[in-house]
Amino acid sequence: MTAELIDGKAFGASVRARVAAEVLGLRARGVTPGLAVVLVGEDPASQVYVRSKQRATAEAGMAGFEHRLPAATAEADLLALVARLNADPAVHGILVQLPLPAHLDADLVINAIDPGKDVDGFHVTNVGRLATGQDALVPCTPLGCLMLLRDRLGSLAGADAVVVGRSNIVGKPMAQLLLRDSATVTVAHSRTRDLPAVCRRADILVAAVGRPEMIRGDWIRPGATVIDVGINRVPGEGGPGRLVGDVHFASAVGVAGAITPVPGGVGPMTIACLLANTLAAAARAHGLAAPAGLTA
Ligand code: GUN
Q1: Among 144, 153, 233, 282, which is most buried by a count of CB atoms within 10 Å?
Q2: Domain span holding position 105
Q3: Looking at the structure, do residues 152 and 244 belong to the same domain, yes or no?
């Protein structure tokens, strides 16, 4: 048996097309959704992410505002920028790229963002709203994973879901979203006893540990749906290396029922969901409902 490949690139493109169509509708009412991206310092991976976010924003017909600050920026100056963006009616979404340089308190900065503009869904208000079942802006990567799972499985009710990883960005919000869709959720992590056996219980396995190819084919229940959130660059022979997920794809593909490839699986969904969140934030800022099917 060979697993069906879950094509996040194609699905992400369809989400972006739906967002672009909704943006046209908002613009006809005089509202152009705007996303501000703040990058502090020179982290090369962050620079790549920020550039692709800016490009995707423009392609969706949104306004993009980019703020690049030196690595030595004082916390007070970053907080002042966030305050200006909070007050700017042309800005509906604010994303402060992480990680921040070590002298800056990321929690303090994130919690200074207007929760209604927090398109990363990292503000404690949005985290709490998600956990209590209220309308929230939801972190983009787990939202993208949820869209892929719903598209493939329809209802998730009663499914055994195992999330490997407990980060604030992916693992914890993923668990909340699966629980809200009535899955039976286990959150596993580096201290979990007999992790392979826990993974083998899963109808839905979400891998978000950041360890290249850790999850092997014999950890997977035959027919399971496997979502690989990992993006790890491993050294290659002389070249720039290759990208691998947290799942050992070659051994998993013969066991799983469906699996996301790396690259081309979860990655493209993250940016699509960032656009969806910005659209939702812009609509709500103008007293309109967020478009159906593009939110959790
Ligand atoms: N760094 C890595 N992933 C993310 C993300 O989803 N949002 C932000 N702001 N920074 C990140």
Answers
A1: 144
A2: 30-117
A3: yes
Q: Tell me if 20 is assigned to some domain.
A: no
> What are the tens digits of pLDDT across the range 209-258?
999 999 999 999 999 999 999 999 998 877 788 999 999 999 999 999 99
Tell me if 208 CB under 6 Å of ligand 1: no
Q: Report pLDDT for 236.
A: 82
Confidence of residue 187 (pLDDT cuts 50, 70, 90): very high
**With 90 as the cut, is the pLDDT of residue 264 above it?**
yes
Residues 269 and 141: beta-carbon distance below 8 Å:
yes
Q: Contact at 8 Å (CB) between 122 and 168?
A: yes
Residue ID of nearest Cα to ligand 1 atom 9: 97
Tokens of 273: 């969901």
The number of domains in the chain is 2
Distance between Cα 97 and ligand 1 center (Å): 5
Mutate to test the pocket of ligand 1, among 52, 67, 95 (most ligand atoms within 8 A of CB): 95
Best mutation site among 141, 169, 174 for ligand 1 pocket (most ligand atoms within 8 Å of CB): 169
Q: Quote the strand ranges of 2-71, DSSP E.
A: 4-5, 34-40, 63-69
For residue 241, the model assigns a pLDDT of 86
Ligand 1 mean position, distance from CA 253 (Å): 28
Q: pLDDT at residue 170 above 90?
A: yes
CA of 119 to the centre of ligand 1 (A): 11
Say yes or no to pLDDT of 153 above 80. Answer: yes
Contact 141, 167 (CB under 8 A): no
Name which residue sits closest to atom 11 of ligand 1, judged by CA. 98
The CB of 179 under 6 Å from ligand 1? The reply is: no
CATH of the domain at 37: 3.40.50.10860
- Quick one: pLDDT band at residue 4, thresholds 50, 70, 90? very high
Q: Are 208 and 171 in contact (CB under 8 A)?
A: yes
